[in-house]
Each structure stands twice: as C-alpha cells, then as structure tokens.
Amino acid sequence: MAIKKKIGFDIIIYDSFEELEESDRRLLERSVAARNNAYAPYSNFQVGAALELENGEIVTGNNQENASYPSGLCAERVAVFYAGAKFPNMAIKSLAISVISKNNEVLEPAAPCGNCRQSLFEYEYRQKSPIRILMMGAKGKVVECSSVADILPLGFDNTYL
Ligand code: THU
Predict the structure, then answer these.
(1) Residue 15 CB: number of other CB atoms within 10 A?
(2) Based on C-alpha coordinates, what's the Rg of the chain?
(3) Which residues are catalytic (predicted)?
(4) What pLDDT is attached to residue 50?
(5) Is the pTM of this model over 0.90?
(6) Residue 16 burial by CB count (10 A; 0-12/13-18/19+): exposed, middle or buried?
(7) Residues of the chain with pLDDT under 50
(8) Would you list the domain boundaries of the chain?
(9) I want to staple 62 with a disulfide (CB 3.0 to 4.6 A). Which of 17, 38, 82, 123 is the partner?
(10) Distance CA 7, CA 19 (A)
(11) 76 labelled catalytic
C-alpha cells in the first residue's frame, strides 16, 4: 500500500549577524572577505564561501565567471574542491556563505544552487558527518541549516552505483 511521507527539516533564523557565536561570526566574515574578491563581471552577483575544517583550517572560495557562461563556477564548489584538493582527509565542519549584488540590495540569505548541493553532498557523505551551513545576504539576517542532506532531500550518493 502506498504511504504518504513528509520530509522536512529545521532551520535557525538569526535576526542579525551579532547573535552568532564568535567562531561563526569569524567564518562568515571570511566569506564576506572572499565575496569581495569574486570574479563576477557578468552577473554582478558576488558570492563568498568559507569552510571550517576539523583541524581549524579555513578554506575560502568565491564565484569565478567566464565569458562562456557555463564554464564559470560557483563559490561553494570552488571552496569545497579546493578543500578536497588541499586537505583530502579533513572533515568539513561548517560552511558559511554570503552574497552581495552590485545591481540590487540582497537582504535574504541565498542557499547554494542545486549543483552545489550535489557537490557538497558528496563530501558530507564521504566524511560521514554533517556539514553545518550558515547563509547571509549582504548583511543582517542569517539562516543556519544542520546539514547538506537537509537541503538536498532524496540526494543521490554512490550507494546507487
Ligand atoms: N552562484 C554561486 O556562486 N553560488 C550559488 O549557490 C548560486 C550562484 C554564482 C554563480 C554566478 O557566478 C552568479 O552567482 C550568478 O548566478
């Protein structure tokens, strides 16, 4: 018999950056610094990502656009691929993402795109521990999610292969 099942998850919404713990504020600040170095001349939408690893290292990335649009890469994947390349066996504890646009004021936190969710999911699955995600717009409100799996329901992993 068919059953109907709801899949849901909790998020934490902070009214402001100041409500975060110091280590999370520091991580978000690193994502803000990274977004300022984004190469986004086509969209004017700058994204910074900062990963905190288990050994305390912080790895950052930002979006890198290209005149051939699909050849560019999102900030989250730049950061996670760099972490995978440089610290292959180090678990990722948290990911902070912040965005800013030169075209309009973005006050809502932006969640990773679908492609980035899938890429991040691979690392979470590999390390067998959740990656916490903090997201912020240009300033202000911060949204926290407990894992990549939460924001990628019914995710695809290598058990299918
Ligand atoms: N972008 C990211 O870096 N991360 C996301 O999760 C969403 C989109 C970038 C890609 C592109 O350079 C610009 O934002 C506009 O889509």
Answers:
(1) 9
(2) 16
(3) 76 (proton donor)
(4) 98
(5) yes
(6) exposed
(7) none
(8) 11-151
(9) 38
(10) 29
(11) yes
